[in-house]
């Protein structure tokens, strides 16, 4: 292994995506991140590699990943990598990064990515930006993004081709610009890692768009089998078992239509949930809930929309009796259409709703269901 | 044996968030609270204390007023408080923050049978990075997203929650756990606890206290020690105001249903 100096920026090149697998199955974030990272690699003028860790035979999944735009897949196969462990995965990723020196490493911001990323970044002494929702390298492209996504004025946006780093003007044209929400989405921040490499980020699941699968790219991809050095003595944690949730979890992230219920159902929880579910059924959608609904045990945690729950961007989001705390809005404000029903006319949810009805959800929802059924009957 | 809980004081973002014209948060105008996930970490420590009678310590890094938060947590039953506070520590990102907190924990002394517990993530930064990074700096194992914790001697068994299920994982002390809110139901302060909290020891670690710790180096703390920089922070544009459909009656619902139908939503 050649000398590793995390401040020798010129020694680092290529973009890597950590490709998470669970029980040998690839995760949707792998495809989303490879698709998005293709653009970043093109903007940097470098190659894009997937980094796939797993047990014997995991390399067979490499082409499936590459078809979304990777130039190659680095495969780390070892019996001790079959199941995710913080220590085993950190060691192998850190070893591989030190040997091959990528400029950028992306992880999906899943429970595993957010366990692994911080540990790798701390060991490599580099920066990690959590839960990003937008990534750029190209400065004009980044500035164009800001024109639509921020309230910054043109003069400020124009000046963002450089930053003051340690008292010196620093040209950001080769830095990964990692944008993420903070304070429940009320504030956005763009983070750079100007002095160290690799720049690392975890990326929020469901935000980046998956590219179409390209058979030719899949077949052309370079498959690199890494020599993994790993022993039982490298492990301080031991996985006893991996259990899938017994009941089918609600797929909020993939849903086009979501009806969510909030505190407004408190006076008759069972009826409120029943009405929400009925409306969701009419729209061929799924039922979600705000934090209070989950914290009170009225719906299970997989139904939770918001900063601490799922981030969703369905075609239609119906909020029944949800006032719209910013943590909740952070998880759903990018929905294509938002419909709010609330008795309080000054509920923050009305500020972002496309259509609002000020009224009691227990009265309005049955009428709305009836109106929808009437239209269906006349089709 | 002791249990160390790491907590953070955060602005209460459940109400209105005040933003200054330059795009930074107007912290002065907002109330501060104990980060919600950290309250579950405190409860996890107290539950272990109830069972084993061990000492519990709460640690935070923040400005001097964070002492009040530490007193509140001590009123819940935690035995000692440590406030890591200093101008030199300001501007730290997660890397530098974990470096400083780890130095504080080394200064306190980590014994072979100690457990460090953190909340999953803070509601201001939402990074979930400082817990795992403290573990890395201390060279100890971690299990994040803990939904259940069992202790048998020096063996800790944790249920790590995943999006689609969970893993059962074992590790030996000393170790670090980050916990989710499903882990427990936090207790309230007792009247006696509030009285007692002000008699309990609270130490302040400033730069001078920690400067000889190997982890503390101008290269690794504060703004200078932070690998990441904020290029810019900004507020997203407000979505254009929508339409309030007047009246909560059948006609209104029919109007809305027709809008949905016109947009091909009703199938």
The spatial strand order of the largest sheet of chain B comes to: 9-8-7-10-6-1-4-5-11
Secondary structure category of chain B: alpha/beta
Oligomer: heterodimer
User: Mind describing the biggest β-sheet of chain A?
Assistant: 7 strands, parallel
Helix-strand category of chain A: alpha/beta
Proportion of strand residues of chain A: 25-35%
Biggest interchain interface, per-side counts: A-B, 104 and 85 residues
How many separate domains of chain A? Answer: 2
- Within CATH, the superfamily of chain B carries the name HUPs
* CATH H-tier superfamily of the largest domain in chain A: HUPs
Shape estimate of chain B: globular
Order of helices and strands of chain B: EEEHEHEHEHEEEEHEHEEH
Specify the overall morphology of chain A. Answer: globular
The termini of chain B sit apart by: 63 Å
**Could you report the average pLDDT of chain B, rounded to the nearest whole number?**
92
Please provide a written account of the structure.
The complex is a heterodimer of chains A (379) and B (267). By secondary structure, chain A is α/β, with parallel strands linked by helices. Chain A folds into two domains: 190 residues, 3-Layer(aba) Sandwich (Rossmann fold); 121 residues, 3-Layer(aba) Sandwich (Rossmann fold), CATH 3.40.50.1220. In chain A, helix 3 crosses helix 4 and helix 8 packs parallel to helix 12. The relative contact order of chain A is 0.11. With 267 residues, chain B is of the alpha/beta class. Chain B has a single domain, classed as Rossmann fold. Chain B has a nine-stranded mixed sheet, sandwiched between helices. In chain B, strands 2-3 form a two-stranded antiparallel sheet. The mean pLDDT of chain B is 92. The chains are: A alpha/beta (379), B alpha/beta (267). The interface between A and B is large, with 104 and 85 residues.
